[in-house]
């Protein structure tokens, strides 16, 4: 199955921070932050932990208490537009995503998973406590471990998404506090919330996995990798010209590296403009670096923040990218996918998943994972897979049916994508009628269905670097592999928004209003009649008589 081949990680400095900036042909800018912290301990062998060093103590206690082997969590606002921006360094679906590998010593995985989600909900100030059995699946082939170890028992794997999770400042603040220097120094001073959230796409993630300390992997350590990806849109930023700088993007400039970081660098991707004909980079740097990223050899201008000469006499670094020409085009990604809901009415529907293989002459297999909520009852006998108008029979299918209010559907398939083709996967479903207490406060908005996950080993344009002992940038070694001819890719489709049969929730309000009106009018009138006291009132005298009595009173004569 085309999942990730596990590789060993070389020994490396304990704390590294990197910023990669990629100018896009549309005039947008892609900025990717990566921070790595190593914790040289191995409590999986029973060693007692007494010193966390630069590793956050809150996360160290979590992985120790809950016997976590790997933990991957992401919070994303917006959808990554692959055809417009290319492939991201680290993909993530809209909303919140969490997948965890537990150690094989755990006996009650579901109970441990529930406690872990509640703890992470408090650490990251998110709604992860809403993760339960109705949105948790146990994949059988996808999401292999990214660290060391040959774990193949998927009973210890749990995966869940919250596609409606909203990412805001309260999620960014605890994420920044996990950094060794916080947001006080280094690249983290650029992480200004009002600028980051005023963007087309924003994603922050935390990845924890065991890695090797040396080439022979005699000792291991824990790697904490924090990533933040953001797309600044040319139009939403209010700029009238194609010009970007650190100050315009983040309202701040770089003044120093993190004192605790052994490496602090800024990479500017100049692969599409090696001669400087399309954009101008200021200040210029003589340091250049090449790296194989996602099957392509990229060239970067490098700014080393640990060198004082980088900041110049002003002791401030404000990189400026000014476009000279809008010409040029972006190479289409070899693999991307789309998904949508078809049909009419509120009884049945159909889910369509489109997977595009843009390679001109090579086919490759992909592993598709779909998790569908229980209230969309899939008709699995209607599942069809077609490529170029012909039936495409999957070589592997794993389907776990749902149980109402207990667990979702789980569908995994291994499909071969022909070259230069579009493969369509369709399945019909029936909408369930929920209990009135199960609807959201805004039921007419619809119900979200999480993104499909597609994993594959995509053919590489250039030979991949398989030397794991060589030190490489962080953005190029998260998905290492041992094959020179292909590289690992994981992509996500759009989340779905599905309408369910919804009762008229205004009727109870109307009934209450009508009932209260009848009770107020009927009972109020009867109560008024029963409690009112009646008195006989003499008729008032006429005007002439009142005037006569006034005159008689002035004369001292008794009134009439």
UniProtKB/TrEMBL annotation:
GO terms for biological process: attachment of GPI anchor to protein. The gene is PIGT. It comes from Anabas testudineus. The lineage of its organism: Eukaryota, Metazoa, Chordata, Craniata, Vertebrata. This is Phosphatidylinositol glycan anchor biosynthesis, class T. GO terms for cellular component: GPI-anchor transamidase complex. PANTHER family: GPI TRANSAMIDASE COMPONENT PIG-T, GPI TRANSAMIDASE COMPONENT PIG-T-RELATED.
